[in-house]
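Much of what follows relies on a compact textual record of a protein's fold. A complete example follows; check for yourself that the lines match position by position.
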Amino acid sequence: PAALAIQGPDEVLPGSEVKFSLVVEKQGQNLPDNLAIELDGGKRFAVKASDPAPVQSGSNQWALASFGEKEVQTVALTGVFDGAAAERTGVFVAKLVGWKGAERSTEGYLYATSSLKVNFLQTGLSANFVVNGAVGDLTVQPGEAMDATIFLKNAGQTPLKNIQVRAVFDAPSTQRGSI
């Protein structure tokens, strides 16, 4: 009763923001009113923003409005692929599911699936972050000075231009003070 398609790039750079569109096209008259798109980007894809918003914050499921006269509905996603894994390809899968009633307490009926094979581009840029001489985990006492250094190395063949480096410290605080 409906077709599902994924529109987006088939080559992405891990760690960079990428946009996908999940498009549902009505192809019949007997579509239930309670439809949703479920995304399985694997553990490598993290959704940063979507339009419309997901059913629940942090979930990978988006409710669709009743089709009525509409023939096409789209969910726009913005996200990031994790750059830590060694795989060179991944599969981005979306499913169109539906329920006969208003309750979503059971697993929905599967109406359509779509997948997109994504190739992960390799870069020659390597980065190291050193705090107080430690490359890995470290312990810092409240009030102790922290010296941080970021090392970037272009080990690739292509010269890189306009590089912007941003560092974010994600650390606990003491007595609601900043680090």
